[in-house]
Design a protein that fits this description.
The complex is a heterodimer of chains A (about 325) and B (about 250).
Chain A lengths: L7 H26 L4 H27 L8 H16 L5 H23 L4 H20 L10 E2 L15 H24 L1 H11 L1 H6 L4 H27 L1 E2 L6 H14 L5 H20 L3 H15 L3 H9 L2
Antiparallel strand pairs in A: 1-2
Helix pairs in contact in A: 1-2, 1-6, 1-11, 2-6, 2-9, 2-10, 2-11, 3-4, 3-5, 3-9, 4-9, 6-7, 7-9, 10-11, 10-13, 11-12
Chain B lengths: L6 E10 L2 E11 L4 E5 L6 H9 L6 E6 L2 E2 L5 H6 L2 E3 L12 H9 L13 H17 L15 H13 L5 E5 L7 H14 L4 E5 L3 H7 L2 E6 L2 E6 L1 H6 L1 H8 L7
The chains are: A mainly alpha (about 325), B alpha/beta (about 250).
């Protein structure tokens, strides 16, 4: 629920324009890739989109729900391992494996969320981190599936028996379609009665409870939806790299997801989209220029967060004024 | 009185450490009645309201809402049974407009309560109802202003609109006049007077003029205990009350 001020029209148009430009650019990327290092560009583009999906899922609870999950990478791992294990067991078809990956993520989210959402602030950060670390160490003990070495996928998931994702370009478009679908669904979600209630619970839980809202239930549902969506990203990431390992769930990964959302601008969805793209593109470009790229990358993140209240989206909004 | 009281507190006791903030408090509010709760600062009025709304759990005693025991119920379940409240420190959703705030208040009672996809038709209907309630509290010209941009008095009026919108059975008002300007509190007083009879109200208020012009019954809370309860005139004349509480302010009445 956004405040309807005089600049609502401008903000609305940014909310349409930014994703429109990004999706159009992504849709045309495979065509442009013909003129460059195609495999590299396609692989980078696919990776951007997968992390954009993860960042959007995090924005639902972080930006809209005010829940700073420092363990969101656990869901990347759960989705990734679901893909890896099911492919390993010869049950890797997308139509079966993706719903199972989502179910596993939803289950983990429901169980850990049930405990986590009862805490706030730093306690919530620590408890989500702790659950993700538990998942991380559990993955290390999965000796049947590679243990700490990780698990290679023999092949990518098929779609209804067809090797639709085998081709990198086709896989790119499958990921793009899933991202667009998820983005649209999240837009509807945040505009729904549930989404408005979630935003209001972030701002004033006591008032919402006094009006008849079960605030714990609202937060838990949001957490489960977010985790499920991030599980989809993990499923796609394992398929792209044809490899999954405990490092999917490393806490650094969770931190990167938070950085993407904050960099792009919290609580807007398109900010998370933009943040993920900017974060990974910047990392790619800078690491190409110098081995000490993190020395440059860190200050840039800090500057954007400090100067652009509301992240890149906020910065763009002020530049257009 | 054959009808169950809208709200009944029976032996409500609550202490923080060794400090007893509610000491076997029993009182009732009949349907449509305004029952005022007065008492000096620190008497435990707000703590009592928190217990009734479920934001605090009593150590002992029983709370019944229209005959239903709600003592162990979470706040949101009491709200669903028709209990509404305002807070001493104004409590609204700051980033939402006045209208959106009232829509949020109305929605739990509707079928679309927590729907996961948009409900434009339902939203339009609720927005119209919200507009009517906002007009009732004098905010008809401010419906699209974010709550954070409203004046203090306007926010208090908005909170009252949010509490009233779902047509509650019982309304708990925790110092609705506090911090409002002379004109705003006069307006608030007229609004509450106009609402009298529509729902039962438990009114905590320091403004004695408001209390004695609105209330059907007055209870006096001192040190967590009810020291007097009855018709306003009787309470005003009660020597124990005058000694314990009204002493300095007797001139006001």
């Amino acid at each position: 629920m956004k405040a309807a001020g005089p600049d609502t029209a401008r903000r609305l148009s940014a909310a349409i324009l930014i994703p429109l430009v990004l999706f159009a650019a992504l849709a045309l990327l495979p065509l442009a890739a013909q003129f460059g290092p195609k495999a590299y560009i396609l692989s980078l583009g696919t990776r951007l989109m997968i992390f954009a999906l993860a960042a959007i899922s995090l924005d639902l609870i972080l930006g809209y729900g005010g829940m700073v999950s420092f363990g969101h990478a656990a869901f990347l791992g759960i989705g990734g391992y679901a893909a890896g294990i099911l492919v390993d067991e010869g049950r890797g078809d997308l139509l079966l494996a993706l719903p199972l990956a989502m179910a596993a993520s939803a289950l983990f989210a429901a169980a850990t969320g049930y405990v986590s959402i009862r805490t706030r602030g730093v306690a919530f950060i620590m408890i989500t981190l702790a659950f993700a670390q538990m998942a991380y160490f559990f993955a290390n003990t999965l000796s049947a599936y590679g243990g700490s070495d990780g698990l290679s996928l023999l092949a990518r998931s098929g779609v209804a028996g067809l090797p639709l994702m085998k081709n990198d370009t086709a896989f790119f478009y499958v990921v793009l379609a899933i991202l667009a679908l998820a983005f649209g669904a999240c837009r509807l979600l945040v505009a729904s009665p549930f989404g408005q209630a979630l935003e209001a619970v972030r701002q004033n839980p006591g008032r919402m409870a006094a009006m008849g809202y079960d605030t714990d239930r609202i937060k838990l549902i949001a957490y489960a939806i977010s985790g499920t969506l991030c599980g989809v990203a993990g499923f796609l990431l394992a398929n792209q790299t044809e490899f999954v390992s405990p490092s999917y769930m490393a806490w650094q990964r969770s931190g990167e997801l938070i950085a993407m959302v904050v960099l792009g601008g919290m609580g807007t969805l398109h900010g998370a989209l933009l943040g993920a793209v900017a974060f990974l593109a910047l990392e790619e470009i800078l690491s190409d220029l110098t081995p000490h790229w993190r020395l440059v990358f860190g200050p840039i993140l800090i500057l954007v967060v400090l100067m652009g209240r509301g992240g890149l989206v906020g910065l763009i909004g002020r530049m257009r004024r | 009185m054959t009808e169950a009281p809208a709200l009944a507190l029976d032996g409500l006791t609550k202490s923080f450490g060794s400090l007893v903030v509610s000491d076997a408090v029993s009182l009732s509010v009949r349907p449509g009645e305004i029952h005022a709760l007065i008492g000096p600062n620190g008497a435990g009025k707000t703590t009592l309201i928190h217990q009734v709304s479920g934001h605090l759990r009593p150590d002992a005693g029983r709370i019944a809402l229209a005959g239903t025991d709600v003592t162990a119920m979470a706040p949101h379940r009491r709200a669903r049974l028709g209990l509404s409240r305002t807070f001493q420190i104004t409590s609204v959703i700051p980033a939402a407009t006045a209208r959106q705030n009232v829509v949020l208040a109305l929605r739990p009672a509707t079928a679309a309560g927590l729907r996961l996809w948009p409900d434009p038709a339902g939203d339009a209907a609720l927005a119209a109802r919200a507009g009517e309630t906002l007009a009732l509290v004098g905010l008809e010209g401010r419906i699209d202003i974010p709550a954070s941009d409203l004046s203090h008095g306007e926010r208090r009026a908005l909170e009252l609109a949010m509490a009233l919108a779902p047509s509650p059975r019982v309304l708990l008002l925790d110092e609705p006049m506090a911090g409002t300007g002379r004109e705003e509190s006069a307006h608030l007083l007229r609004t509450l007077a106009a609402l009298k009879g529509r729902c039962a109200m438990l009114l905590v208020e320091h403004d004695m003029h408001a209390v004695f012009s609105l209330a059907d019954r007055v209870s006096v809370l001192v040190g967590g205990r009810i020291v007097a309860s009855g018709a306003p005139d009787a309470v005003r004349a009660d020597p124990a009350v005058r000694a314990a509480y009204l002493g300095d302010e007797a001139a006001l009445c």
